[in-house]
Amino acid sequence: MTDTPHLIHITPETHGVEVDLVYATDRNFTGKAIYKEAHALLLAPAEARLRKAVELAESVGMKLHIFDAYRPPQAQKVLWDFLPDPTYIAELGRGSNHSRGTALDLTLIDSNGEALDMGTGFDAMIKESEHFHHGLPQHVQRNRLLLLGIMHAAGFTHIPSEWWHYEIPGSRSLPVIDNAESGPLKLM
User: In the record's cofactor note, how is the cofactor described as bound (predicted)?
Assistant: First the structure.
């Protein structure tokens, strides 16, 4: 029997973040809930970097708002089946870094609890969601660069197609974690 890597719960109380796992609701691009329960989970190396990102965001009067973190491979399959486009959804054979516990989707909120304008919504699978998409208003570019700077300074990397997605470097070398049946993140 192999040990499943330990995933750490990320909560507002323990990490000073807002958590709204959209895949536990119908407010995602599939239009249906994928998770039965909303638990934000990360592997220890990603969780340590998240703590640094929280500190950096606080230093500029901001807070992180998490949309997704660990994602069981079965949930990844639901997303791929809905939108089989490797620009936005990791192919099943490759596996998502979310399914490795090393990636998270998030944005910044201000001191009033309002999300910064990032030009598109989370999970908008369109060209305008690219980090450096030309033609977006300056304030949107500034907001995206602020998020990018915080996350990079904390040790995360980004992918070009999604302003909200960050992961730890070298994630692909880690195994996919399958705890959908035994772990705290159950599927619908």
Answer: Binds 1 zinc ion per subunit.
Residue boundaries of the structural domains of the chain: 7-173
**What is the DSSP secondary structure assignment for residue 167, as one 8-state letter?**
E
Is the pTM above the cut of 0.85?
yes
Residue 41 CA to residue 21 CA, distance in Å, equals 11
Contact 54, 150 (CB under 8 A): no
Residue 39 assigned ligand-binding role: no
165 marked as part of a ligand binding site: yes
Q: Could you tell me the fold of the domain covering 7-173? A: Muramoyl-pentapeptide Carboxypeptidase; domain 2 (3.30.1380)
Q: Is 162 a catalytic residue?
A: yes
* Range 66-105 burial, b when 16+ CB lie within 10 A, else e: bbbbbbbbebbbbbbeeeeeeebbbebeebbbbbbbbbbb
Provide the residue-wise pLDDT of the chain in tens; the chain has 188 residues.
Answer: 345 578 999 999 999 999 999 999 999 999 999 998 889 999 999 999 999 999 999 999 999 999 999 999 999 999 999 999 888 899 888 889 999 999 999 999 999 999 999 999 999 999 999 999 999 999 999 999 999 999 999 999 999 999 999 999 999 999 999 875 545 555 54
